[in-house]
Amino acid sequence: MATRKVTDMGWGQADALWFYTALPEPMLSSELERLAFATSFTDTDVVSFQPCPNPEHSSQDRYVIRDWALPGGNWGFRAIFDGHAGHETADYTASTLPDIIQEKLASVLEKNSEPSPAIIAETLSKAISDFDDSIGEALLKLFPDKLALLDMPDEDVKSIINDGGPNAATVLHCMRGTTVLISVTDPSRKNLWVASLGDCAAILGTKNENGSWKSTILSSSHNGENPLEAEKVKKAHPGEPECVLEDRVLGAIAVTRAVGDYYFKIPALYTHRVFLNAEPGFQSPEKVRSFISRNLTPPYMSGVPDVQHIDLSKSKESETFLILCTDGLIDCYDDHRLRLAEYLGPLWVKIVGRQSGDASKNLALTLLRDALGGDDLDKVSRNITVEMTFRWMDDTTIVVHRLH
Which SMART domains match (predicted)? Predict the structure, then answer.
């Protein structure tokens, strides 16, 4: 039977205790499946998980699973978007960007039925970066003259941006942000492209001839903890020691690349006059005011993704799958953020590989279960039922695509 218990969540604070419900099997597995919205689309399994019941902390992750009938055959599109600071940009990106990419790919294929992998990669990169540019351009069209904006009374600015319609949406798309992780496969399943913008992760699992599994990281980690990314920001802003502060851009945001987040991409004037006058505004306007003085020579963030092409023809006869996940899955494991290639990737591929031959298994749910505690029923119960009004874990979305 289910039993109510008390936990400190492993945080070691005797005065901070919360109730949770220890669930027996099969009740525990059933409840996790329900809370994770576990579902499958032919060859793809998905979970999207945020157990906090407070609606103010509902998940800002989004995912899109599509198969497109394009010239020459069916192309596969899988994507996850990890929103931050609000839902608006993640929602807008998930609803708009896939159609843009489909249209761009169709245009390429109509001109050339067998485009090179490099052309497809460039098409994906340009579609994503152009989409991000369009978000900022829409705002600048509202206030094309910076000098006029500087002198405009607050009430006039507010009347333009808080219209409850398209102008308000334009501003919110700039004030919120989202990472982007996209995979595309061609009709032959011989080619895979992965476009990454932000700090989500893509891992390819391939079964070797001896039955063992190989893991390959296909994404880039675009955050301040990555020395290469931090150095890029620093080189672009010489003489600004606080452009990266405590592994965060301007000391404020972890990711170095994302869609949206235009208060890191355009002059501080727009934050002062537009974003801080918007309704609804920032979740923490004080935090924005604390770093806005560091915005001297924008942009500090990029909307240009990294794109990798992978030739799958050699592995076509063996089992192959692709794992896409938001960084919430990484955060479930202590001290392994910087060890994705050495530790987490091989671990996840091994877990999925053990179950990959069973079509009845939701492989994404299998991964989530391990991250929450695996066979430790009490730990998993605690992680999904603890009675808190604030988030105790990050939004976690996992997509597992069976390629071969």
Answer: PP2Cc
What CA–CA distance (Å, rounded) separates 184 from 103? 14
Please give the full DSSP string across 330-371, using - where no structure is assigned: HHTSTT-GGGIIIIIHHHHHHHHHHHTT-TTS-HHHHHHHHH
Amino acid identity, position 51 = P
pLDDT digits (tens, 9 = 90+) for 323-358: 999 999 999 997 655 588 889 999 999 999 999 888
Residue 84, token pair as written in the block: 């931050």
> What pLDDT, on the 0 to 100 scale, is given for residue 1?
84
Count the neighbouring beta carbons within 10 Å of the beta carbon of residue 371: 24
Q: ∠ CA(248), CA(250), CA(253), 5° rounding?
A: 45
pLDDT of 302 over the 70 cut: yes
In total, the chain counts a number of residues equal to 404
Indicate whether 170 pLDDT > 90: yes
Q: Where exactly are the structural domains of the chain?
A: 3-394
Tokens found for residue 249: 């851009």
Q: What is the 3-state secondary structure (H, E, C) of 218-278?
A: CCCCCECCCHHHHHHHHHHCCCCCCCEECCEECCCECECECEECHHHCCCHHHHHHCHHHC
**Identity of the residue numbered 72:** G
Determine the Cα–Cα distance for residues 74 and 69; give it in Å rounded to an integer: 4
pLDDT at 209: 87
In tens, the pLDDT along 85-143 reads 999 999 999 999 999 999 999 999 999 999 999 999 999 999 999 999 999 999 999 99
pLDDT for residue 378 is more than 70: yes
Say if residue 111 is exposed, middle or buried (CB neighbours under 10 Å; 0-12, 13-18, 19+): exposed
* Structure token pair of residue 324: 């896409």
Report the alpha-carbon angle 361-362-366, nearest 5: 95
**Nearest one of 80, 84, 47, 60 to 384, comparing CA atoms:** 47
Mean pLDDT of the chain: 95
Determine the Cα angle at 284 with ends 280 and 286, to 5°. Answer: 115
What CATH architecture applies to the domain 3-394?
4-Layer Sandwich (3.60)
Contacts 24+ apart (CB under 8 A), 246-253: 247/223, 248/224, 249/224, 249/300, 249/301, 250/291, 250/294, 250/295, 250/300, 251/291, 251/294, 252/287, 252/288, 252/290, 252/291, 253/84, 253/177, 253/301
